[in-house]
Amino acid sequence: MTFRILVVDDSKLARMAVTKALNALYPECERMDATNADEALALARQTPFDVALLDFNMPGKSGLDLAADLRALNPKLALAVVSANHQDEILRRARELGAAFLMKPLTTQALAHFLSDALAHSGTPGR
Amino acid sequence: MTRETVLSELERDALTELVNIGVSRAAVSLQEMVSQQVHLAVPMIALVSRSEAIRLLREREPDNLIAVQQTFEGSIAGRALLIFPQTKSLELVRAITKSELSLEDIIELEQEALAETGNIILNGCLATIANLLKCSLRMTLPEILHGGGSDFFAMASLPTSEDVVMFLYIDFTVREHDIRGYICMLMDMPSLKILRGLIRNFLERTTDQAEF
Amino acid sequence: MFAVEDQLSADILDALDTGVMLLDGQRRVLVWNRWLVAASGIPVQKALAKTLEELFADSFPHRLMSAIAGVFESGMSSFLTHSLHPSLLPLKTRAGEYLIHSISVTPLGSRPHVRCLLQIADLTVAVHRERILRERQNARYDAVVESAPDAILTLDSDGIIQLVNPAAANHFQYTMQELIGRPVIVLLKDRTIWSDVWNSVVKGGPSRSIRVLGQRKDGSVTYLEVSASRWLSDSRVFVTVIFHDMNVRRAAEEALHRLNRTLEERVAERTADRDRMWRLSTDVMVVARLDGTINAVNPAWHHLLGWEEGDMVGSNIEAFIVPEDRPQFEIARAALSASSAPKLFEVTLLTRNRATRRIEWSAVASDNLLQAVGRDVTAEREAEKALRGAEEALRQAQKMEAIGQLTGGIAHDFNNLLTGIIGAMDALKRRIAVGRYDDLARFMDAAISSSNRAAALTHRLLAFARRQPLNPQAVEANRLVRGMEDLLRRTLGEQVKLVTDLAPDLWPAFTDAHQLENALLNLAINARDAMPTGGQLTIATRNILVAEAEHHGQDEIDPGDYTVIAVSDTGVGMSPEVVPKIFEPFFTTKPIGQGTGLGLSMIYGFAKQSRGHIRIESTLGRGTQASLYLPRYMGPLMPDFLLDTRDAPLGKGEAVLLVEDDSSVRLLIGEVLRDLGYACIEASDGQAALPMLTSNARLDLMITDVGLPGMNGRELAEIARQHRPSLKILFVTGYAEHATGKHPFLEQGMEMVTKPFMLDALALKIRQMLADSR
Hints:
By secondary structure, chain A is α/β, with parallel strands linked by helices. Chain A has helices spanning 12-25, 37-46, 63-73, 88-96, 108-122; strands spanning 4-8, 30-34, 51-55, 78-83, 99-103. Chain A has a five-stranded parallel sheet with strand order 2-1-3-4-5, sandwiched between helices. The model of chain A has no long low-confidence stretch (mean pLDDT 86). Chain B is of the alpha+beta class. The model of chain B has no long low-confidence stretch (mean pLDDT 81). The interface between B and C is large, with 49 and 44 residues.
């Protein structure tokens, strides 16, 4: 099963953790990293992604604002905002953008659950 | 080993991420208390000497500072401080409490309200570090300090040489108030070494076992 | 305290004046001290081994559970303060009030046997004390600051607003909440001035008031005066800033400034306005020196009078005024020079083509200059004159109407008289023809008597119809009434009985005899008309002394001596509503066609002109009495004998020139003069009379007809006086308009007699005139 996933986080640790989890879950998927919203948007304009994992708390544009931009680029994109800050307001905005909310620190189970949901829903990836 | 090389870039990144997770949790606690969206972020972390920390504060801030301090002990030992300019502390309290309170009310509430607010933030940071790094810590109750950087960092009973101050900026946003302060963790070199070991273990875990 | 083995420890815990609770790893109560029992009302036995949820349900904050979790999971200590939590645990004081408290949550022991210690501090008393102190302070503070009209803000040392009063929120159009937490500089437009103030004050420097430009929420600018002072609280610096609203004063200053700036402009504008007015006005305007020398005139002079500016400037204004008005102008000029009050006067100006215009002036003198604006009132005055003429004509017409009224009554009498004269003459002629001379004198006496009566009658009619100004003189009213009796009887007719009731010692009245006759005649006619079925008319005379001013309606009778002539009838009378109106012109009680209504108003005018009064009393159905109050004549009376002498005075050979175009009259008068002893020279017209007048021959008197062919009597008199300045001249006239007692052309030594005249009267007049020259 192959799909294209964009991981956006200013923390290298966080990106590494996601990489590890993805290697375990979907070794064949195509993964690209970005450290901020601008990089992420540049990548997204070049390459269409199936899934995006966005850190909420980043310098510059927040993960929620980035989610909105990416959604505008690709309405079918499966989105998740990752944060330890699970305040109601953030959850609500994520929901409005059709993005899942994943708690930090991100666990493999939580990621697996989100990805299987997202992939089954869109039915996109599959080789 | 110089202070700058005590922690690798990745280790510092990991520590920053841990503190961010910590303050994010603190933000959730505060949000529950004030029924307003609270945003807390720690954009950068620096490891500096005690004297450098004092200089940094003096350069950036006026002499009148206020700090919430909690000491920690266990696997690592030291002090955690949340520092604001005194004027910002009033704003912080005003942001946390109801904004229509009078100045006198706020001044009166300031000490206790600041103690609890700092307590939540510092607990958030240290608890996250302790839990994720799987180390055992004990933290005392918060106390309020007034003065400048030298006052805060000099009163430690720890040996002055080779002390390291983990210096973090913290952005605090609530009710349209945007307040910038500092989180400082003051520890001695043995504690820092132990911390480094804990971080490395953590990195191994999160990269090898993919638990992160 | 079951769980505490050591009794001493247990006792100490119970004795503590603070709440102590210990939870085990399962978060169940291990220790519950006596303080807690009292505050929570939960006995120890009930509390032990229970969790907080079980003891308090959910009535404590989530934060407390997090704090307890922090102890067991991460070894964190927590502090919960009453200031951030409206309520912590449901605890009560002994008085039953909510117990204000804070909670410390700390781990006890080390892992894995960690326990959680909760300490609860009672802050109720401290908080209440603080609150009372604060309220007291606030009350004082509020009194000053909350009601202050100035905007008062307290800033922290960063310039962030910490406190505002309502006036500040009002002035800057924010809510108080919006302002708190904002930097004060959002309220300021010119921040450089402010930063100087701020830097000085925040360092404890002196504060002085300074003007700054503020800005409101909507961006509008506001002028403020700011004063600031620093104060310390717990070593914390605050600055209290007072903004005083300067907008009103600023606006006033601005207005003043603008006024000054535009003053010159406005002066120029006003000058231009004035120039325009000067140029365009249809009124004539002049600026002259106080002596009348003209400095400037406006173009209206040219348009109205034809004068050019060049004709006038430098000349005296008097030169443009008709000579007869110059004295009047002099008076006005003198008055203007003496005071700054404006004057109104009217003079006639000469136009360039020698016509005149009547100008009404409004003039004022200032700065030694006479400034005058004149309005052309020529047309107005002409209209007024025409109106006056019309009024005069109307009065005359009314008089003629009265004559018309008389005519009916008089014509019969006159016919009788003529019949008597003609009959007598006829009888004389026949007797002379047959040579019967025995009783000629009887017929001649009858003819003369009838002729005299006819002459008297026409005289009265003529006098009545005459236009003449009021000529007040001493008048004996009784004699006048008696003289009118015949006329009145004839006028009143047979159904009205005339009664006179004349006071014997009546004062002479000072009035015009002819007008008085006229008035009495009119009153009599009115009375007659009020008695259509007949009645009695009474004319009474009385002396009346008015001691104090008497009021009759709107009219006032001044104090003084009056000769009163009252005319009463027994006619229909008038209602009280009508009486006050009867003097109004054109008011009449008569049916249309019978009278113009001017009668009583003319009598009223006559009475007023005589400085007398008329008073009407009337009762409906009973009759009316009109009383004429005429002022008493206080001077000497002419002796009666002069008027009453019946003997024709004889001349002593004085030379009399008689100029008369009617040969029969000339013959008659000449005969009479010679009979009376004068030397008479006759001339048929002025030309014939001149040689005599220019000669050196003796001449004592000239008797001339006024209405001569060619040179009239008046012109002849002028020439005669040029040669003989003291020549007595007696005019004879048959025209009513000439027959006036005091005619303007009658100079010293001139008299006039009216045709027809009695020869005796003529002789008397001549005798008097010649006697005066002696």
